[in-house]
Design brief:
Layout: H1 2-20, E1 27-30, H2 39-49, H3 52-57, E2 63-73, E3 78-91, E4 94-95, E5 101-110, H4 114-136
Parallel strand pairs: 1-2
Antiparallel strand pairs: 2-3, 3-4, 3-5
Helix pairs in contact: 2-4
């Protein structure tokens, strides 16, 4: 009798902790210019934007995400940034470059410093990720 109660309590504890655990992170890659945004910042933006609804609608076993941020300064010292967020199908542990959905944002800022240009790159990637998620899993 005691063993049955103990097993029941233990299984309820495990199930409860699994239900409230944070969703696992999907396969996410970043192919950005290191001058504009570092890989850890880009991956943190993806993680911040992840929702349980996205994981449910697009299982991690079938889908992954890629980000690209490119740009820099032109001759007139204007910071120009392009950021793209893509959802790609998975093939085992890798992604197939056949984007299912893509969101791209552009931005420019005249007279920007390098730090301001990096800030613009981060903001534009955040916008691209938000746009992609709003199409895939609208609220």
């Amino acid at each position: 009798m005691f063993t049955a109660r103990l097993l029941t309590a233990l299984s309820m504890t495990i199930c409860t902790s699994m239900a409230f655990a944070a969703p696992a992170a999907p396969l996410t890659l970043d192919h950005s210019s290191a001058k504009l945004i570092d890989k850890s910042t880009a991956l943190a933006l993806w993680k911040q934007a992840q929702t349980a609804k996205m994981v449910k609608l697009y299982p991690m076993s079938k889908w992954g995400f890629v980000s690209e941020v490119e740009g820099g300064f032109d001759d007139a010292k204007v910071c120009i940034v392009t950021a793209r967020a893509m959802m790609l199908p998975r093939s085992g542990k890798s992604l197939v470059f056949n984007p299912s959905r893509t969101a791209t944002t552009f931005g420019m800022q005249a007279g920007a410093t390098e730090d301001q240009c990096r800030g613009l790159a981060k903001a534009k990637l955040g916008e691209a990720i938000t746009a992609l998620h709003s199409v895939l899993a609208p609220n």
